[in-house]
Amino acid sequence: MSEPRPWTTLVFDVPELLAEELAGRVGFDSRGMEFTPAGEDLTRVRIYLRLAETADEAAAEIRGLLDSEGHASEVRVESVADDDWVERFQRTLKPIAIGRRFLIVPGDEQADPGERTALHLIPGRAFGTGEHPTTQLCIEQLEERVAAGSRWLDIGAGTAVLSMAARHLGAGEVVGIDNDPVAVEVAAEVLKRNGVDGVRLITGSLETVDGGFDGVVANINRPFFTANEQVLGGLVRPGGLFIASGFLGDDVEELSGVFEASGLRVDSVHGRDPWVALVAHRPD
After folding, report:
1. Alpha-carbon distance 157 to 177, whole Å?
2. CB 52 within 8 A of CB 40
3. Hey, which bits of the chain come out as E strands?
């Protein structure tokens, strides 16, 4: 039996008021974040990284952000033994109602969804539990915009929560892509657990998918969008939609420019302070 894979984490202490904003700058493309008290008016932030090789770059970005805020703090890279930590974490979560239609049910939790559609997650090995405001923002926008029979791309699919939502809302086909093989493996298990078909999962980068989708949803951090400016617009057909979240309100101006340069026109901004979602379309 193989040894469990350890988690690579970034750990730093910041003033309580800065904790979520600073973590959001570099932490959304992660497996999860923890916030715990660290003394008077301080919060200890622990970011569980998707990929260990990004640790030094992410730590450097955090140090730069801390310096810009006039706050000095050590940023440590630590390895945490797996030993079912994620499973224990998910077992502390409760069902979460999202939008008008869905109930996210983590782990083995039993819940009566009533008139909502239950989306069951599987405990262990990966984050992506639906509790983050950006997941909620994306689902709310999908509820408003998925047309029957439409074809959607879910970038950074994680546990396939958004892919499942799109299918339940009437999408004819969904392609879910993630650069983390573990996330894709877990997503496949989640789809099977929920009996959801019509979702094709891909491990890799955007170069592995063709464009022309009716809609794209991407719940990823800000650097992803800036790094992929040249290809974002080509992912959707003329008249197609792009729902983007995973970043803060302070990033709206920059990312609106990124979308415009990619050939997308921003239609609206939706917020759940301090997080936001942008909705754009590709002009005909």
Report:
1. 6
2. no
3. 7-15, 30-37, 42-49, 76-80, 96-98, 102-105, 117-120, 151-155, 173-178, 199-203, 213-219, 236-248, 265-272, 275-281
Preceding amide of 274 cis, omega within 30: yes
Residue pair 233/208 in contact (Cβ under 8 Å)? The answer is no
Q: Which residues touch 237 (CB under 8 Å, ≥6 apart)?
A: 211, 212, 213, 214, 282
CATH architecture of the domain covering 7-83: 2-Layer Sandwich (3.30)
pTM of the entire predicted model: 0.78
Q: Residues of the chain with pLDDT > 70: what percent?
A: 85
> Is residue 199 classed as helix, strand or coil in its secondary structure?
strand
Task: Tell me how crowded residue 9 is: count the other CB atoms within 10 A of its CB.
Answer: 22
Q: What dihedral do alpha carbons 49, 54, 60, 66 form, nearest 10°? A: -20
Q: Give the integer Cα–Cα distance in Å for 102 and 143.
A: 10
Please give the structure tokens belonging to residue 46. 């622990």
The residue length of the chain stands at 284
Residue-wise pLDDT for 191-211, tens only, equals 999 999 999 999 998 988 988
Domain 130-281 fold: Rossmann fold (3.40.50)
For residues 68 and 91, give the distance between their C-alpha atoms in angstroms, rounded to a whole number.
37
Identify the sign of the CA torsion 210, 211, 217, 220.
positive
- Would you call 59 helix, strand, or coil by DSSP? helix
Domain-by-domain residue ranges, the chain? 7-83, 130-281
Take residue 260 and report the two structure tokens written for it.
């415009």
